[in-house]
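HOLO CASE FILE
Compound: carboxymethyl coenzyme *A
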Amino acid sequence: MSRETLTITDNRTGKVYEVPIAEGTIKATDLRRIKTGDDDFGLMTYDPAFMNTASCRSAITYIDGDKGILEYRGYPIEQLAEKATYLECAYLLLHGELPNKPQLDDWVRDITHHTIIHENVKKFIDGFRYNASTMGMLISTVAALSTFYPDAKNIGDPENRKRQIHRLIAKLPTLAAFSYRHIVGMPFAYPDNDLSYTGNFLNMMFRMTELKYKPNPALERALEVLFILHADHEQNCSTSAMRSIGSSRVDPYSAVAGAAAALYGPLHGGANEAVLRMLQDIGSTSAIPEFIKKVKGGDGTRLMGFGHRVYKNYDPRATIIKKIAYDVFEVTGRNPLLDIALELERIALEDDYFVTRKLYPNVDFYSGLIYQAMKFPVDMFPVLFAIPRVSGWLSQWVEMLEDDDQKISRPRQIYTGPARRDYVPIVKRS
Ligand code: CMC
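Model generated. Tokens follow.
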């Protein structure tokens, strides 16, 4: 009869251990029993970058990287992208179920009610230089919000948490748009609470002198879909940062600032910006073979927007984004970089280097082209990732706080430095 256990023989001692298997996993701490003697700490696992370590149990997002499946709380991303709104998805991620009509109305009202930021935050934004990065400004101003809401420290109170969640989801677009207006030297455009979440964001970004800004419905919907696709992606770098920082029981503004900082890197949320710069550098379809040669040459050049730690198939978000790119280009005109991107994809998908490594386009490959066509500056692309991702970070944060298995995050290390030695006075050092 089969047993849900793993039998391990330690060849150093000849001892045999039986370790339980649950949900296809063994507990790393069960290995600590495996020792060579009383002064041995016990066996550890070495797993830099968490290549094969589950850091939590989660009921939020499901990914099957081999099949290219992504689901929020069991709902396929394709259905959500087609039928839902971003705020509906944010509610789903946070509450576990889709809202009914009264729940959705209350939720939208609660978020809308918090879109305005304290006037002092504007002064803070004004202090940044004219060429500051909008993502840097967003990270800093989100962190600064913790000083405006000191009650947010009370993370043990679910009602209090709820209030901070409303504030964060509501205020991120305002902070982002105000940061942009500061850079371009335009007066801040205040939130218009008659508009949808994405419609209002477009209003705060692009309103000029008109009394009432009317977002283009196709662009408003395209942004909504992009926000849905970016809302959560289980234990990626920024989400792990959110959980790890949050595990110290810091307030959620500080934790979100840390998660956003993790997102900023070019291997994560900064990739869509890197894709656009790459396409601009390539310049024309005729230069693609040379570029591919460089990527394969091993000098560290990467085909940005390709490859994923989890997806070893086409990223399902990339399929949806590619489709909506055409809806957007119908309104804005075709982005000339699209032809380079399409040809690059075609060549890469036929090339042995990419095929054998299972490198496919990811969410960032086409999103930058859409953002650029919608007149968002390239520098803001990571910001456009951070705004929707905040609902995912907060869902994961709440799940972590309510999980009795979780403690302060604290990995182990294998010490490789010198053995104990005595201090050498400076005159005796070589
Ligand atoms: N271009 C060229 N080669 C690549 C690429 C790429 N984009 N991605 C991976 N490889 C190669 C890599 O050199 C390695 O080859 P070898 O086995 O010969 O050393 C192999 O494929 C495995 O790569 P890895 O770096 O071990 O894979 P990883 O899981 O650590 O990295 C990744 C995942 C996303 C960081 C990486 O694929 C990458 O750098 N992609 C480009 C940046 C990018 O588009 N990032 C956005 C990710 S999706 C948005 C998000 O969730 O943040």
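CASE NOTES: Residues 233, 236, 267-269, 271, 295, 302-309, 357, 359, 362-364 surround carboxymethyl coenzyme *A (CB under 6 Å). Strands lie at 5-10, 15-20, 61-64, 69-72, 75-76.
CLOSED: yes
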